[in-house]
Amino acid sequence: MVNSIFEATQKRILILDGAMGTMIQRHTLEEEHFRGERFADWHTDLKGN
Hints:
mainly alpha
């Protein structure tokens, strides 16, 4: 399969799309997971943005 994908890149532009968002949602992250140290005191919620 990897070889066929590589061969296709030699002939055309490929757009690969996956389910990364779904995989992240499975972790049931909360607001504090998005903030970290850098945005600990940020004035608005970061989750969902």
